[in-house]
Design a protein that fits this description.
- By secondary structure, this protein is α+β, with helices and mostly antiparallel strands.
- It folds into two domains: 65 residues, no CATH class; 46 residues, no CATH class.
- The protein contains three helices and three strands; from the N terminus they run E-E-E-H-H-H.
- A hairpin with a 2-residue loop joins strand 2 and strand 3.
């Protein structure tokens, strides 16, 4: 890649989005958080976990909701990875939590 900051944009009023570029070897060459028509954060070093945590943090720091299509899974990540409960969980969230708890209990019973 010729530039460490490519010409990246997003739409006006867009929430945070992650843009990652990869080297020929498959490593993250550069990563950026885009929001509201511009690059808001350049993430360095280029580590996937740090990049993902930065994206989640951007949603919370800028007080914007998760995109509708990703809301449930990102709220689960909030709870199980970052120990933060969602402000307004929906029925799908509770169904997932119940199913996940049952799964954990069944695995624990198999170990005993």
């Amino acid at each position: 890649m010729s530039s460490t900051r490519p010409n990246l944009t997003s739409l006006k009023d867009d929430g945070p989005r992650l843009a990652m570029f990869f080297s020929d070897e498959g490593n993250i060459a550069s990563a950026f958080i885009l929001a509201d028509q511009t690059v808001r954060v350049k993430i360095d070093p280029y580590d996937f976990l740090k990049t993902f945590a930065t994206l989640i943090g951007a949603y919370h720091a800028w007080n914007v909701g998760y995109p509708r299509g990703y809301k449930n899974i990102l709220e689960i990540v909030d709870e199980y990875v970052f120990s933060m409960s969602p402000a307004k969980p929906n029925v799908s969230y509770y169904k997932f939590k119940k199913a996940f708890k049952e799964f954990q209990e069944s695995k624990a019973a198999q170990v005993v």
